[in-house]
Amino acid sequence: MTRQEYKDIYDIVGAAMEVHKTLGRGMFEPVYQEALAIEMDQRNMKAEREKLLHLYYKDILMEKTYYADFYYKGIIIELKSANEINSEHRAQLFNYMRITKQYRGILLNFGEKSLRAERYLYLPEDDNFILLTQENYKEYITES
Prior knowledge:
Largest sheet: 6 strands, mixed
Shape: globular
Mean pLDDT: 94
Strand content: 25-35%
Structural class: alpha+beta
Number of helices: 3
């Protein structure tokens, strides 16, 4: 991941923080989705809302599809409004990242007292998902 690609993640979280600061917690997910779309638009961040995701089996397009809440510069963004993020929320994001072969994803939870933003990197060669933290994110940044 390049520095710019990490900055894109940082920008998304910044927009989400503004939404959480303005609306607080406890609303339904569609409210946060609409507010985040407005905030990203005001920041000139051209994101696709409710991005259609196609599935393939052995390179054959399947009829089943999914929708990610947002897609921005190769980043899958999933929103939640729950008491806390759980393994099912993470599994949903991970499946979206895996099927689209996108290696960056963010899980945003507006239901907690403070915005919870989990940033993930997908390593397809290992089929592994890495939670990016203040301590480890620099390990995954390349100069290109």
